[in-house]
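Input record, target 12 of the design panel.
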């Protein structure tokens, strides 16, 4: 590995994500020449880290943020190293939601409803817990939401978010990148943190479902309109009603029952997740992450494996050897000039004393050299080896502790997942029992309905029989009336004929008597004259008082239509098409045939004011319908209603 950056005791291996607020690094805590463990380190941007008040605020919030313990919250530690602000987290092989949005957009991999719901559900659970612990998240942004390849979600940045939020109002270039996750019109540095978190989560859920920002150019900013006009990216269908309800209460703070706390939002999300309508499982989310980041996951695993084997040079632990100076050390200990012996002593053993001193000096030097050689060859390497072994044991112990902690977290996560599945199963069983009870009730109701329908059917048949009997009776009465009218008509005609014949006979008799008087003929002649008069009278008498049908003045005998008004409203399609001019009248003339009941039984069109148009948008059809609906008082002929023809006008008035 080449050119590894160091920040204090941390080695920065790879910049996995960069935003305008911070850069996120895969790092390692170095001890001696080896890595104790991998970490995730967020380095705040230089523009923000220079602010002294931000540093003070960050350190203040970091004290309370370390107390948050939740399966979906990443533990945080804060350090200031060489003027740089570091947020340090346990490393998790994951990708932030902002990277997932980019991957989904660039490669055309839309979020399914299940994926969006499980992410939103875990996020709502973490935000609700943090808010109830009096440490709410101040900037719920996709950059702070990490999702692992195993489908595990962690949100981080609880301390840094407060400090950044306080500074965003003064950094408009930073604010412009993230304002789509804030409610418009609110001051970014002020306001209820829960309200911001609720809106941000609603905007994130909307973005996952539709693939679009909630605030998009050319789109409505009214939550209800924006949501109703949007389609889900995965299915190109409208958003389901229950999810729409969550989005509306999160994105529109003006609704009477909008979410006031993240606890309310989490409660509705749990109802949605456990409703049984969807399958928002961790396995489905893990499969989605593997599909999106398959190549990146493999490359990252190889890099982490190499980093664990890397050996670091630690200057602080390399102590250059200090070679001993035996000559100087011997001179100080036994090579100094011997005290001047007494004269008598010198005389006694001058040569023997000189040899003993020389031997003693050489022996001392050799002994010092042997001790030094033994130290450098055996004792010091042994100490170094013991130190390295101690470091190695400490490293192994730390790795074992990290593995145990990771295993415990995985076990806890599995237990939570099992509890969630059990709860979901229990809810599903309760719903099934409720559904079975409902079905039993519906079956009972259905049986009652069937009985009622049978009863109604019997009543209907009985009513039909009664109606048929009544119709038969009415028809009999009608026939009797018609027969009576015919008989009365025949009687009237016979009476009129008899009167006419009687009158003719009387006239004939008068003529006969007159002739007898004048001619003084015998009675036999009167009989002949009477017969002739009868014949003449019968010829001259009118055969019928009924005028021929062709000679009747039908128009004079017909009364005004019974509906009272001769003006009608044009069809809506004709008005919309603009073929009719305002203030004008349009008249359709028909010749209609009217029966004895005063109803129109036939018609023929004589004038169409829109005949020149290719499409009259139903005006002629409407005129015919109006003509057919009219009722008339038919003319009386020989005391009885009779058929006739009439010319009528259907007027349309355009206001």
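The sequence produced for target 12 reads:
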């Amino acid at each position: 590995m080449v050119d590894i950056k160091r920040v204090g005791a941390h080695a920065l291996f790879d910049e996995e994500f960069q935003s305008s607020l911070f850069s996120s690094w895969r790092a390692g805590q170095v001890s001696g020449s080896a890595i104790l463990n991998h970490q995730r380190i967020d380095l705040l941007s230089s523009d923000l880290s220079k602010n002294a008040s931000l540093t003070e605020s960050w350190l203040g919030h970091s004290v309370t943020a370390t107390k948050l313990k939740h399966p979906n919250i990443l533990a945080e530690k804060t350090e200031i190293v060489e003027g740089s602000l570091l947020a340090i987290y346990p490393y998790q092989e994951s990708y932030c939601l902002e990277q997932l949005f980019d991957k989904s957009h660039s490669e055309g991999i839309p979020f399914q409803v299940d994926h969006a719901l499980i992410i939103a559900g875990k996020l709502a659970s973490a935000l609700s817990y943090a808010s109830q612990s009096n440490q709410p998240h101040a900037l719920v942004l996709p950059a702070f939401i990490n999702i692992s390849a195993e489908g595990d979600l962690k949100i981080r940045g609880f301390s840094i978010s407060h400090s950044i939020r306080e500074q965003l109002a003064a950094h408009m270039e930073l604010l412009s990148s993230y304002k789509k996750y804030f409610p418009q019109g609110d001051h970014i540095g002020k306001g209820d943190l829960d309200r911001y978190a609720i809106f941000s989560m609603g905007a994130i859920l909307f973005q996952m479902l539709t693939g679009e920002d909630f605030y998009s150019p050319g789109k409505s900013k009214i939550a209800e309109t924006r949501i109703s006009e949007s389609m889900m990216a995965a299915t190109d269908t409208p958003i389901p009603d229950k999810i729409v309800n969550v989005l509306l209460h999160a994105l529109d703070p003006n609704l009477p029952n909008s979410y006031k706390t993240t606890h309310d939002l989490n409660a509705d999300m749990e109802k949605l997740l456990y409703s049984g309508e969807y399958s928002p499982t961790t396995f489905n989310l893990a499969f989605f992450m593997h599909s999106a980041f398959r190549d990146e996951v493999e490359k990252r695993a190889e890099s982490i494996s190499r980093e664990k084997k890397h050996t670091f040079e630690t200057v602080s632990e390399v102590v250059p050897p200090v070679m001993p100076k035996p000559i100087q050390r011997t001179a100080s200990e036994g090579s100094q000039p011997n005290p001047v012996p007494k004269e008598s002593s010198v005389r006694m053993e001058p040569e023997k004393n000189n040899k003993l001193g020389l031997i003693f000096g050489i022996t001392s030097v050799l002994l010092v050299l042997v001790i030094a050689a033994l130290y450098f060859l055996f004792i010091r390497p042994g100490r170094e080896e013991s130190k390295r072994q101690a470091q190695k044991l400490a490293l192994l112990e730390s790795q074992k502790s990290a593995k145990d902690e990771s295993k415990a977290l995985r076990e806890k996560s599995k237990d939570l997942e099992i509890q969630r599945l059990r709860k979901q199963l229990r809810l599903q069983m309760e719903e099934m029992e409720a559904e079975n009870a409902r079905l039993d009730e519906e079956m009972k109701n259905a049986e009652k309905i069937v009985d009622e329908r049978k009863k109604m059917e019997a009543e209907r048949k009985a009513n039909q029989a009664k109606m048929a009997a009544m119709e038969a009776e009415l028809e009999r009465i009608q026939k009797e009336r018609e027969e009576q009218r015919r008989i009365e008509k025949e009687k009237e005609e016979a009476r009129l004929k008899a009167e006419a014949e009687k009158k003719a006979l009387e006239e004939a008799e008068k003529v006969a008597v007159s002739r007898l008087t004048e001619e003084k003929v015998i009675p036999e002649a009167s009989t002949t004259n009477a017969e002739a008069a009868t014949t003449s009278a019968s010829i001259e008498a009118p055969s019928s008082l009924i005028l021929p049908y062709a000679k009747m003045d039908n128009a004079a005998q017909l009364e005004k239509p019974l509906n009272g008004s001769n003006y009608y409203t044009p069809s809506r399609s004709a008005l919309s098409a603009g073929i009719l001019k305002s203030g004008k009248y349009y008249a359709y003339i028909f010749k209609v045939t009217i029966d004895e009941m005063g109803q129109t039984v036939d018609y023929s069109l004589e004038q169409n004011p829109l005949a020149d148009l290719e499409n009259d948008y139903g005006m002629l059809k409407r005129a015919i319908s109006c003509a057919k609906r009219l009722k008339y008082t038919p003319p009386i002929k020989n005391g009885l209603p009779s058929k006739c023809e009439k010319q009528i006008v259907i007027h349309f008035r355009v206001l």
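The first strand starts at residue 5 and ends at 7.
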